């Protein structure tokens, strides 16, 4: 008599972790160095009824594994881990708790915050999210765009918030992966010159118990529950999230737009040590998490989220590398932005550029070929590492953000700092063979004020987050232009709009990789909230239905800025420009004063105007001939206009005003000759280009 498929389990194999359907059955493999045994619990399609339970019969090294013939993709399952309940040695095994497979690619149900989850003596199965054995997806059909780093323009966006209020996107697609792939969304990205979208976390997230009780939500999604699974709530059909996510990536790739994912491998959704075990804590707490050496019942918390993953452990690195490769090979992802990335390089305690994780990524044939972006800070010791990541990595540059904001706010002595940022932040990045584009330049990101609020609020207004305005950064380097919040005063509104144009111009005219926050291009506001992590509503969404005349003007101006950057190789140099003269006495970059002459050291003190002169011919071809192509950008924060003579060249040609934040809707018309004086309006940026 033939046995039923659920009546037998074979040894299977250990080479691939997770649940793998080979067409004849399903192989299960789970890493646990300290578990005595691992059970696989099978459930009905709705995840409510347990139908069978097996102990994985084989163990290879620290991988427990088994194979169930006849089992198919679509099967719902969970894990139970048996072992010592010995917190003093880091072990927190409890077979009463159903656990999520760390390699789960699809989820069924959600976590219910009830007594069964909190009470160690109660079985948690009825309250626990479960995994589903995935149907294998064919390889991506559309090639990745491979946009060169020095030609990259990034837009950071929330996968839901980008389209929730966009009336150009069909209602049934808003807030979904398909909303990102909608023709209107793609058309806007291309119009803005965006080459790369950077999505806030799309991995399946935990619904936070505290936030749910407050009527709020884990909107940003930095509490990752299942790192291999696309978040189901962003799909039109949550049961089809994998396919819908893949379709989104392919639609963007078809239009030449890259997809970078924000990933969280510094901590997990399991939170502090006394919170319920959901996955890694119950499978092998002592291996996955960083524990206090003197008391292993406590976590080292270098993230502010209650726990820290231990990337110095080879098994943890294997999980992370498997996960990254999964997103690249299954979905075609073009790169990753790593949240609180110094955790990745603590090997085991101090940050090390040569940490095992970095070495293994560099040696990986898949991961070594994609974009790798670090958020170069966390709250642990030695947690600020801007400029210290390995060659090939890019980094979010908060010094660019702060210095640009302070310059345009009018802080004293900021001219040298602005020049440093415009030149690619060489003190931080011109080391060990790194390049200007390794600096991800930003004025704003999801964490903090959007651009409109940078010019509209002096202080944060996070009262709606339920923490009495204690959360969020208190240092924003913002300036409300004389009135806190929304204003109908024409003079205040005009000043704010010009400052936004000035900041965006500084971003697009600087060496490095520009990143713009979605909505900044048309003046999106969070109404003073600088920590909208829990605001799954109009505060956190991009208000595309509220674009006024000022917003449309700003959007057109941003488009012009992006086009200017794309048209001038001098703005996207592949090497650092140091202003050193060659045998032809030409400099690739020079800094001029308001008199049109090169600035000496003493001229920088108290300077209100910074002028950057780029020799486009020399930058494009250092050994080539001089045709007279130049680009000059004047950053005048003075309250007075500046009358500046244009530089001279030995070659014939004329200057043209290509862009002016004082006249954002004007088109280049007049031409100027060498030495001719041009007027730069107060509080403005003007760009001139010289053509042969």
Strand order of the largest sheet: 12-13-16-19-20-21-22-23
The mean pLDDT is 96
Envelope shape: elongated
Proportion of residues in β-strands = 15-25%
Helix content: 10-25%
Tally of helical runs: 15
Give Rg in angstroms: 27 Å
Q: Biggest sheet, open or closed, and with what strands and sense?
A: 8 strands, parallel, barrel
Second CATH tier, the architecture of the domain at 5-132:
Sandwich
Quantity of strands, as a count: 31
Weakly predicted, low-confidence segments: none
Termini gap: 88 Å
In the CATH scheme, the class of the domain at 5-132 would be Mainly Beta
Describe the structure.
It is a single chain. The chain has an 8-stranded parallel barrel with strand order 12-13-16-19-20-21-22-23. Strands 24-25-26-31-28-29 form a 6-stranded antiparallel sheet. Helices cover 21% and strands 21% of the residues. Helix 9 packs across helix 10 and helix 13 packs parallel to helix 14. The protein is built from 15 helices and 31 strands. The mean pLDDT is 96. It has 692 residues and is α/β, with parallel strands linked by helices. The longest helix has 20 residues. Among the domains are: 128 residues, Immunoglobulin-like (Sandwich), CATH 2.60.40; 107 residues, Transcription Regulator spoIIAA (2-Layer Sandwich); 118 residues, Sandwich (Immunoglobulin-like), CATH 2.60.40. Strand 1 and strand 2 form a beta hairpin.
Task: Provide a concise account of the structure shown.
Among the domains are: 5-132, Immunoglobulin-like, CATH 2.60.40.10; 153-259, Transcription Regulator spoIIAA; 574-691, Immunoglobulin-like, CATH 2.60.40.1180. The chain contains 15 helices and 31 strands.
């Amino acid at each position: 008599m033939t046995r039923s498929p659920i009546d037998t389990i074979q040894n299977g194999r250990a080479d691939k972790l997770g649940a793998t359907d080979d067409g004849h059955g399903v192989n299960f493999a789970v890493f646990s160095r300290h578990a005595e045994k691992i059970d696989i619990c099978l459930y009905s399609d709705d995840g409510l009824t347990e139908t069978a339970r097996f102990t994985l019969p084989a163990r290879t090294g620290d991988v427990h594994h088994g194979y169930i013939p006849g089992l198919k993709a679509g099967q719902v399952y969970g894990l139970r881990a048996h072992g010592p309940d010995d917190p003093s040695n880091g072990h927190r095994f409890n077979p009463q708790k159903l656990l999520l497979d760390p390699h789960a690619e699809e989820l069924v149900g959600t976590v219910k915050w009830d007594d069964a989850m909190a009470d160690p003596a109660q079985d948690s199965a009825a309250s626990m999210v479960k995994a589903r054995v995935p149907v294998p997806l064919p390889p991506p059909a559309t090639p990745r765009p491979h946009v060169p780093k020095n030609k990259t323009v990034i837009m950071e966006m929330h996968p839901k918030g980008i389209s929730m209020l966009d009336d150009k996107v069909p209602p049934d697609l808003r807030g979904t992966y398909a909303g990102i792939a909608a023709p209107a969304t793609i058309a806007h990205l291309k119009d803005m010159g965006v080459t790369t979208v950077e999505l806030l976390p799309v991995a399946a997230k935990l619904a936070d118990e505290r936030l749910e009780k407050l009527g709020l939500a884990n909107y940003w999604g930095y509490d990752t529950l299942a790192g291999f699974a696309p978040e189901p709530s962003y799909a039109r059909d949550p049961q089809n999230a994998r396919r819908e996510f893949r379709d989104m990536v392919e639609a963007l790739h078809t239009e030449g737009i890259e997809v970078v994912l924000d990933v969280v491998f510094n901590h997990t959704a399991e939170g502090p040590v006394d919170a319920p075990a959901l996955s890694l804590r119950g499978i092998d707490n002592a291996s996955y998490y960083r524990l206090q050496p003197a008391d292993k019942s406590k976590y080292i918390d270098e993230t502010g989220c209650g726990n820290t993953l231990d990337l110095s452990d080879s098994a943890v690195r294997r999980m992370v590398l498997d996960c990254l490769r999964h997103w690249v090979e299954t979905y075609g992802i073009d790169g990753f932005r790593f949240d609180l990335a110094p955790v990745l390089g603590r090997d085991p305690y101090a940050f090390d550029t040569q940490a095992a994780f970095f070495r293994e990524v560099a040696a990986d044939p898949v991961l070594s070929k994609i974009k790798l972006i670090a958020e170069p800070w966390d709250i642990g010791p030695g947690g600020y590492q801007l400029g210290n990541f390995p060659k090939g990595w890019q980094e979010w540059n908060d010094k660019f953000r702060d210095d640009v904001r302070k310059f345009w706010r009018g802080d004293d002595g900021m001219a040298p700092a602005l020049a440093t940022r415009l030149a690619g932040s060489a003190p931080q990045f011109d080391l060990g063979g790194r390049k200007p584009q390794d600096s991800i330049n930003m004025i704003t990101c999801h964490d903090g004020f959007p651009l409109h609020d940078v010019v509209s609020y002096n202080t944060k207004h996070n009262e709606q987050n339920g923490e009495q305005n204690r959360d969020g950064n208190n240092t924003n380097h913002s300036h409300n232009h004389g009135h806190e919040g929304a204003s109908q005063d024409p003079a205040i509104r005009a000043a704010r709009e010009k400052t936004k144009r000035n900041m965006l111009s500084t971003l697009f005219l600087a060496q490095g990789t520009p990143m713009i926050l979605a909505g900044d291009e048309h003046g999106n506001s969070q109404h003073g909230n600088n920590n909208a992590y829990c605001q799954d509503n109009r505060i956190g969404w991009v208000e595309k239905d509220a674009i006024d005349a000022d917003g449309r003007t700003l959007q057109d101006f941003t488009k012009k800025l992006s086009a200017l950057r794309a048209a001038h190789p001098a703005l996207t140099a592949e090497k650092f420009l140091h202003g050193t003269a060659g045998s032809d006495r030409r400099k690739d970059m020079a800094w001029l004063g308001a008199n049109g002459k090169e600035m000496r050291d003493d001229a920088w003190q108290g300077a209100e105007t910074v002028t950057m002169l780029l020799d486009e011919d020399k930058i494009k071809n250092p050994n080539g001939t001089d045709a007279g192509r130049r680009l000059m950008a004047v950053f005048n924060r003075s309250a007075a206009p500046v009358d500046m003579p244009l530089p001279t060249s030995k070659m014939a040609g004329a200057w043209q005003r290509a862009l002016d934040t004082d006249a954002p809707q004007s088109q280049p018309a007049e031409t100027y000759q060498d030495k001719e004086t041009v007027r730069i309006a107060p509080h403005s940026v003007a760009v001139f280009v010289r053509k042969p």
